[in-house]
């Protein structure tokens, strides 16, 4: 009983494995594998992580920054020159350690481009020759650094960086949709190769059968020697076409496997992929205006249009402000003190104030300032013109893709009907030839029409599905389910 059970179980497992090996993959299966494990999909996700961390780094710039800086130790033992009262120079030995620590909490002021900081500082000076120690402390200090008339990059970054982040997010979706387009192309390359292989195998069998029938007809005097030689040549051509089709199918299968990251089983045998023909065409209507609107709100290129215009305006303002009057105001207030002991330095600290205004004004530049501004202005105008042209190309591309998809939908239906008619005509021609009611030439024409119609039907399906996924890529919208692609 147990042996019978194990034998039946073994047959069931073997049958299941055989079925798994011969089970054909659909277009949907291939696209899921490509987006899950292809190198292109992994690279797209890596780029997205870079985009996220870059944006987080930008946001962190506008939050308070706590930092500890210092020089510890700062030891020096040497001879230094000392100017004497009479003007002579005498070299005196020095041996000291001058260490300093500074704890600072700073905050950028985006609207003005300035920085405000709160800090505390401790400095210790050890004179090893005189054997004494001094402390200098700043228990509390506040400082403001404010550029005046300078270009403020932070104000522009707050407008541009969110667009870059949104552009990167949409670029991830586009990259994954591009993976689908590429996988679809490779899928149909293999499917066309497999169809050609099937055609070649069928033609080889049919031509061999017809040649044997023709030999019998020759003995009966119902066919000429010329027709027999023509059929014999057809057999040789079919053998040649079969070998070529086998090689093309193997190459196409390897390309598709490599792209989607497909791994064969651990038996060491390389199994060709078997694909199904996606005859079920989704039925939906695409409005051109709706497609353009969706692309305008979803595509990274549409976001890039706004970003490029902002960057051009930013560069123009930078050229104008950084080549004129510039000044920087630095001011601070706090408490400070010094003493021979650390505790003494913190007793009764004194006020600590400082203020300075640094400025620069170009007076004679020989036209350099004007040239820089005019160059930036010309680049800004060029960017505006380029963006306008890119917008028109953007809309034309979508319009062309929508009309192409509608046309290819009709082509799929027509080529499918033509394929069915050609297959039926060939079957009739083959039966008539067997009955000596059709010439070899007419049979050859029917064979060529049959093969051409089958290939045209597959190529029409390829063109349709490529156009379908290209439209998804161009709009980032699924018109079949009426929702944005996320």
Automatic annotation (TrEMBL):
Main location: membrane
Signal peptide interval: 1-20
Keywords from the UniProt entry: Cell outer membrane, Membrane, Signal, Transmembrane, Transmembrane beta strand, Transport
Subcellular location, record wording: Cell outer membrane
GO molecular function per UniProt: efflux transmembrane transporter activity; porin activity
Superkingdom of the organism of origin: Bacteria
Pfam family, one: OEP
UniProt keyword Membrane present: yes
GO CC entries: cell outer membrane; efflux pump complex
Record carries keyword Disulfide bond: no
InterPro entries: OMP_efflux (IPR003423), TolC-like (IPR051906)
PANTHER family hit by this protein: OUTER MEMBRANE PROTEIN TOLC
Similarity remark: Belongs to the outer membrane factor (OMF) (TC 1.B.17) family.
Protein name as annotated: Outer membrane protein TolC
Source organism phylogeny: Bacteria, Pseudomonadati, Bacteroidota, Cytophagia, Cytophagales
């Amino acid at each position: 009983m147990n042996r019978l059970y194990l034998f039946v179980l073994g047959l069931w497992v073997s049958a299941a494995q055989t079925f798994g090996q011969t089970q054909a993959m659909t277009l949907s299966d291939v696209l899921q594998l490509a987006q899950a494990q292809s190198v292109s999909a992994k690279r797209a996700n890596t780029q997205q992580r870079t985009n996220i961390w870059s944006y987080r780094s930008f946001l962190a710039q506008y939050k308070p920054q706590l930092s500890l800086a210092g020089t510890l130790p700062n030891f020096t033992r040497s001879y230094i020159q000392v100017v004497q009262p009479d003007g002579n120079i005498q070299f005196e030995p020095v041996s000291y350690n001058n260490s300093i620590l500074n704890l600072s909490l700073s905050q950028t002021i985006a609207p003005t481009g300035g920085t405000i900081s709160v800090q505390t500082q401790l400095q210790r000076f050890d004179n090893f020759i005189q054997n004494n120690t001094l402390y200098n402390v700043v228990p509390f200090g506040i400082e403001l650094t404010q550029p005046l008339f300078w270009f403020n990059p932070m104000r522009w970054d707050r407008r541009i960086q969110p667009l870059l982040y949104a552009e990167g997010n949409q670029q991830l979706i586009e990259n994954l949709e591009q993976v689908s387009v590429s996988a679809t192309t490779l899928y149909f390359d293999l499917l066309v190769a497999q169809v050609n292989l099937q055609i070649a195998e069928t033609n080889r069998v049919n031509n061999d059968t017809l040649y044997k029938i023709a030999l019998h007809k020759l003995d009966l005097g119902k066919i000429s020697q010329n027709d027999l030689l023509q059929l014999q040549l057809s057999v040789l051509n079919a053998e040649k076409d079969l070998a070529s089709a086998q090689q093309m199918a193997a190459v196409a299968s390897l390309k598709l496997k490599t792209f989607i990251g497909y791994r064969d089983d651990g038996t060491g045998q390389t199994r060709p992929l078997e694909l199904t023909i996606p005859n079920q065409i989704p039925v939906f209507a695409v409005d051109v205006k709706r497609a353009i609107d969706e692309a305008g709100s979803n595509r990274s290129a549409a976001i890039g249009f706004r970003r490029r215009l902002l960057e051009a305006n930013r560069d123009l303002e930078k050229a104008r402000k950084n080549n004129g009057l510039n000044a920087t105001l630095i001011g601070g207030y706090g408490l400070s003190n010094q003493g021979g002991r650390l505790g003494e330095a913190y007793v009764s600290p004194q006020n600590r104030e400082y203020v300075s205004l640094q400025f620069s004004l170009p007076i004679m530049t020989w036209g350099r300032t004007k040239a820089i501004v005019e160059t930036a202005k010309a680049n800004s105008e060029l960017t505006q013109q380029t963006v306008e042209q890119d917008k028109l190309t953007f809309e034309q591309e979508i319009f062309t893709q929508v009309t192409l998809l509608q046309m290819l939908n009709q082509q799929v239906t027509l080529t499918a009907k033509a394929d069915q008619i050609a297959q039926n005509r060939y079957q009739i021609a083959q039966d008539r030839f067997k009955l000596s009611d059709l010439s070899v030439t007419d049979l050859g024409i029917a064979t060529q029409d049959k093969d051409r119609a089958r290939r045209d039907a597959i190529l029409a399906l390829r063109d349709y599905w490529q156009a379908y996924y290209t439209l998804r890529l161009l709009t980032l919208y699924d018109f079949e389910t009426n929702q944005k692609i996320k």
